[in-house]
Amino acid sequence: MRQRWFVPERSGILSLEGAAAPYAAIWGRDVLTARLYPKYAATPTAGVHPATPQSFPRKYIFYGIIMTLSKETRIIRDAKELSAFVKSVKHDNKTIGLVPTMGYLHEGHLSLIRAARAKADVVIVSDFVNPTQFGPSEDYATYPRDEQADLAKVQSCGADILFIPTVETLYPNGQGSTWVEVQNLGNILCGASRPGHFRGVATVVTKLLWLSQADYAFFGEKDYQQLTILRRMAQDLGCPTEIIGMPLVREPDGLALSSRNVRLSPDARKQALSLSRGLKKARALFGQGCRDAQKLIAEAQSEIAAQPDTEIQYISLAHPDTLELYTQQVPDQVMMLMAVKVGGVRLIDNMRMDERC
Amino acid sequence: MRQRWFVPERSGILSLEGAAAPYAAIWGRDVLTARLYPKYAATPTAGVHPATPQSFPRKYIFYGIIMTLSKETRIIRDAKELSAFVKSVKHDNKTIGLVPTMGYLHEGHLSLIRAARAKADVVIVSDFVNPTQFGPSEDYATYPRDEQADLAKVQSCGADILFIPTVETLYPNGQGSTWVEVQNLGNILCGASRPGHFRGVATVVTKLLWLSQADYAFFGEKDYQQLTILRRMAQDLGCPTEIIGMPLVREPDGLALSSRNVRLSPDARKQALSLSRGLKKARALFGQGCRDAQKLIAEAQSEIAAQPDTEIQYISLAHPDTLELYTQQVPDQVMMLMAVKVGGVRLIDNMRMDERC
What we know:
Two copies of one chain form a homodimer. By secondary structure, chain A is α/β, with parallel strands linked by helices. Chain A has three domains: 1-71, no CATH class; 74-246, Rossmann fold (3-Layer(aba) Sandwich); 259-352, Pantoate-beta-alanine ligase, C-terminal domain (Pantoate--beta-alanine Ligase, Chain: A,domain 2, 2-Layer Sandwich), CATH 3.30.1300.10. Chain A has nine helices and 15 strands. In chain A, strands 5-8-7-6-10-11 form a six-stranded parallel beta sheet, sandwiched between helices. The longest helix of chain A has 22 residues, at 266-287. The interface between A and B is medium-sized, with 35 and 35 residues.
């Protein structure tokens, strides 16, 4: 396999305190040491900061020109090419981390890729808007796509492969030739208003897990029901991949990150904050000792219903592992999940009631 | 992993031509060299015959005492234990061959195990009467079982693992928690009279493929529709396992081997020969140039219907790859498939019309 190299976007971020360093290592994997050309001659010591770029303290300053090389993310579109790559990786006894996405990546996705980067030797990100999980009246055709932006983001997180299959590649005998379906769990909550949605998800994820032969697969807890269903599926089908859930990522003002957020008008975006506010209010009530499901739901509901353009599809309380729904008394470990249309855009959100903010 | 050793049944079969050999290797894998004690002193050369025991020419003779050791087949009942074994095999970059069976093994199964033994480094045979592929009025409870006999047979073929899971092991969240279903192909032929049958097959085979992480999986062409469905499923789901079909095995009198044959009364067994006779007669007619589906089917049908206790479920002509059914004109490559109840026992059989006997 021919491997090209490139200079990543964040090359300039280095950890230096005070003086200069003749050589310094950069965080992360796939990185070479870099030579620094000091502005001021000083002791040749460098403090290498272990933090990720996000948490990098501003007081550190960059003193020199850094030459850093990282592997370029390779785009694969063909299933056979992916299989050949996977085979070579497995032959070297390296581990594979898979991050299945529908593209149009945001910071939530990137947190999954970074988690994969930290845990696995090789990281595969898939970028596929899966038609079989959209209903006929849903937004498959208009779902946002931006392959070039995705590539740059995936690259900055150090992924090895960006897998962008066509529909024909993943459905060689047409859509719906073979289905994988998790019973019961797929019919409640989001499944109630999106029939067939989770069947499409389970089917495409089975394909991606088998094609990638991943040791670990990473999913966000924002799609909490999806995560629960995929865990159940993997257990039911003896899938050797470890399914790893990562925390939901929010904007500073509380909005849960979603590729669909770009479709919110400025006004709708403001109204959409009522989801996280409602969840927090319910959590506060739970923290005060309330275990009445109807009261907890009403607390969130009133916050959201106060907005003019919101249409609540469901607000439910469920067991965090089994998604067993509670309509009367809730136990001490419980999760609130909701789907709300805000200005015509369907948003989901969730929060553990028993966790401190 | 503790590995015990045993002297296999066929230790005595060695390839020697003429004189004796001080040391000789025995066919197959997992075999040690053996010391021969020659009856007549002669040149110390040995011709090692590459054939399988079945094709071993009678003119070769055995001249000495052979001490040969082979690995004992290990029984695994637990999914986690199997996964750990598979992991260690994969770590050594060895290939795995899987032979999924419902037990009560006959020579047809053993031909699959020998094919696996010849192709893969490690052979796993599974022995599981899968409840989800039986209908409520079918013979799940009375399906023949004989674990000890199976173990001896599997061992004689040199399998490494005999996997005998419980129903709870393969269905940790109950039967039908997750289904894998191939559309269309599963509703015709046997699927028409056995609704849900192939869904149960596809589901359990997915589990076994994932648990075993097999490089190759072997299935008999006797269950031709099953083989076709599993090939489609593997292709649809990106399964990296190569699905390998092996020829149907018959008794000398033509009866297709089946675990259910033991349930035939002596009289029914005689009547059951009409299936292969009917297939052969249809094939002869096809060989004479007949391409009329109705005439070919009638040829087989009349042979079977002439028996008093036969009840034909279907006799059909289909494309060997796609199972597309032909009711009028048939092409030059075509297969006849049938299911017939003989004395209350459901039997299936099939034959390529375009192959010479």
